[in-house]
Amino acid sequence: MKSLRVLELRLVARKTAVDQTRNEPQTPGYVLVNPHTAYQLRKGTSLRLRISNLFDTAYREPLGGVNLDQVLQSRGAQPSQAIAGQGRSVDVGLSMLF
Questions:
Q1: 97 CB burial (10 A radius; 0-12, 13-18, 19+)
Q2: Rg of the chain, C-alpha, whole Å
Q3: CA 84, CA 86: separation in Å to the nearest integer?
Q4: Are residues 26 and 45 in contact, defined by beta-carbon separation less than 8 angstroms?
Q5: Nearby residues of 89 by Cβ (< 8 Å), 6 or more positions away
Q6: How confident is the model at residue 49 (pLDDT cuts 50, 70, 90)?
Q7: Which of 12-26, 32-46, 57-71 has the highest mean pLDDT?
Q8: Which among 24, 41, 86, 97 counts the fewest CB atoms within 10 Å?
């Protein structure tokens, strides 16, 4: 049985250089851990497992956009907030060649 193991680290610096005229928010830095693995069960059959955001880290993408609903409801009184990033997710796949 062949296997492949990968540990992806995503390190993102905080964003402080923003355009105030565009109401751009600052975002803190973060680290995401995304392990994935694949196993060849037999010739032509493989199983894959991927976990995104293993530790369910709360983060905001620096270029992910802003929550316009929050800005509109406050009529611009509150600063815009960047949209939250994806929480933990698990993907499982089975591939078969025939």
A1: exposed
A2: 19
A3: 7
A4: no
A5: 51, 52, 53
A6: very high
A7: 32-46
A8: 97
Q: How far from the centroid of its chain's Cα atoms is residue 53's Cα?
A: 6
Q: Where are the beta strands (DSSP E) in 1-98?
A: 2-12, 30-42, 45-52, 89-96
The amino acid occupying position 91 is D
Sign of CA dihedral 8, 50, 60, 19: positive
Look at the alpha carbons of 75, 78, 82, 87 in this order and tell me if their dihedral is positive or negative: negative
What the block records as the tokens of 43 is 């010739």
Residue entry with tokens 């960047």: 82
Burial classification of residue 78, based on how many CB atoms lie within 10 Å of its CB (0-12 exposed, 13-18 middle, 19 or more buried): exposed
Angstrom CA distances, 87 to 5, 29, 34, 36, stand at 22, 16, 12, 16
Residues found in the chain: 98
